[in-house]
Amino acid sequence: MSGPEQPKVIGEELSDERIRGFLDLSPYDSQDNADFFVLIRAYQALREGDFERLVAFFVDAGRDLNARNREGQTILDHIAEHRRSAAYVASLKQAGAKTSAQLADA
Q1: Which of the chain's ends, N or C, has fewer CB atoms near its CB within 10 Å?
Q2: Whole-model pTM above 0.70?
């Protein structure tokens, strides 16, 4: 919650270090896939351009863009369900992310 001591900041430029900080996130439940967890949290928190930067850092770190959640969805499956996600989907596809159907066909 923001208040007088912590005013809400909108449009703040995020440093590479701050974006890379998402790579250190861990799921609350050990049964959740850590790579999917990082991607979903980044999607929920970052603007389109910042998410694209995170995806590049994620791939460079050797993380799995095609990690699945408990329902078997990849991050691309999940994000593609949202109406205003075109830029996020494009970033993922450009980096090599696949849907669960594409992975099953491979």
Answers
A1: N
A2: yes
